Amino acid sequence: MSGDLTSNILLGLQTALQPDNLWFCFLGVLLGTIIGVVPGIGALTAIAMLFPITLHLQPTSAIIMLAGIFYGSSYGGSTASILLNVPGDPNAAATCLDGYPMARQGRAGVALTLVAGGSFIGGSVGILLMMAFSPLLASLALKFGPPEYFALMTLGLLAAAIISEGSMVKGLAMVLLGIFLGTIGTDVYTGIERFTFGSPSLTDGISMVAVTMGLFGISEVYATATDRAENVARQSKITFCSMLPTWDDIRRAAPAALRGTGVGAILGILPGAGSTIAAFMSYSLEKRLSKDPSRFGRGAVEGVTAPEAANNAADQTAFIPTLTLGIPGKPTMAIIMGALMIHGIQPGPLMLTQKPDLFWGLVMSFWVGNLLLLVLNLPLIGIWIRLLTIPYKLLFPAILVFICLGVYSVNRNPFEVWTVLAFGGLGYVMRLCGFPIAALLLGFVLGPMVEENFRRTMIIARGSPAIFIDRPLSAAILVLAVLAVGIAVFSGLKRRRAAFPVAE
């Protein structure tokens, strides 16, 4: 077995290090990083726009380039999240929660350095899992049916309410609002339009890009426009020392990166879960494990490192079901799978034996791409931080334009521009009232998945809910969900008693 793995690694290196493949790997991660930094575009739009170019490339070079854009944009998205509180990609939305407060404290360089390290760790472990455990992880994913997916998504929704700032009731309310917004559109089972009010623009539902950019990006523009004082901490001189984290930062960030990597690696192989969910789940885990949860949302290094490690690990392991099973776990993977099929390559179990050079060349190109990201972006940290020195009167109108152009470019629909502006207003009001934005976003993402898998489960079980308990995996996940809620309620009551002691 080890001999086979060694020969596969050598074959992959021989393929990945060919000059053409190296160039397209570099071009992919560079474009991905730049696209990730620019708010409102994201990997899906970039890959869709550049997809025609790959038709004229060799299959291996084409897939290596598209993959580089994919995981490069995840890294670049964190830069805008930290510096501007605008997630360049939905995967980086969780990074806003503590990354931007670190920038406001004058620690933007430290935050970006930790992101670089966490992303590299997460990506590297994800690649190792692909190399060593692809068959095992693929067989595990095959055991997940609709009941297990429903249980997993329910756990994610409860986690969204638990991690929320303030009361869990506010978090639950925002989750429910997110679920409602996610149900707008056409019912996939009956074909009946729901909550569209006769508007053709709502037939396909509300754009996820518009919701994310509005809640996190436009709301920040609104908030800053009403605050005339530029209270973001500026770093007048960027030095190498100013970008180095302290020993305490490393002590807190390293375990968080490893835990986030584990969460992302597992969720990445599950179709429908994806890196956005992995980032929020890892953030939830870190907050639950922290001895002082109040640090989160105020510049906790764990809140930056864990989500970035998680989404990068998930991005790497997302290739496992796509390549070994032919099941794309997210729209981006569907485009990459389509590129393979156009080149006459059918993703699936036979790909490892029929096209080993492509499979292992792609896997080893991930190593090359992650090293290129580390080498490229660490020297660029100073340049990214200088974004903070641009006057707000110039910077934020430019952000507003980029977001609107990015949202419009996805579907060429002017309605989505108005949508992003409306959600920007909603996000601003939520900030003023202390409602958690992240909980709404996660409810919006997971709500339709919960509904779809619940209905599938009921069809399979002929309406009997006992199927959730009869299946060991779904039962175990639901038990974890109940325990999480119980611990959260107990912790809340304990804090309330400490704050308002009963007089004897």
Structure description:
It is a single chain. With 504 residues, the chain is mainly α. Helix content is 74%, strand content 1%. A two-stranded antiparallel sheet has the order 1-2. Strand 1 and strand 2 form a beta hairpin. It is globular, with a radius of gyration of 22 Å. It starts with a helix and ends in a 5-residue tail after the last helix. The relative contact order is 0.18. Mean pLDDT is 76; it is low at 228-236.
Please give a quick description of this structure.
The protein has 504 residues and is mainly alpha-helical. Helix content is 74%, strand content 1%.
Q: Which characteristics define this entry?
A:
74% helix; two-stranded antiparallel sheet; 21 helices; 504 residues
Major sheet: arrangement of strands:
1-2
Tell me the overall shape: globular
Mean pLDDT: 76
Q: Whole-number radius of gyration?
A: 22 Å
SS-based structural class?
mainly alpha
Q: Name the assembly state.
A: single chain
Q: What fraction of residues sit in β-strands? A: under 5%
Main sheet: strands, sense, barrel? 2 strands, antiparallel
Number of helices: 21
The total beta strand count reads: 2
Order of helices and strands: HHHHHHHHEEHHHHHHHHHHHHH
Low-confidence runs (pLDDT<50, min 5 residues)?
228-236
Task: Give the N-to-C terminal Cα separation.
Answer: 69 Å
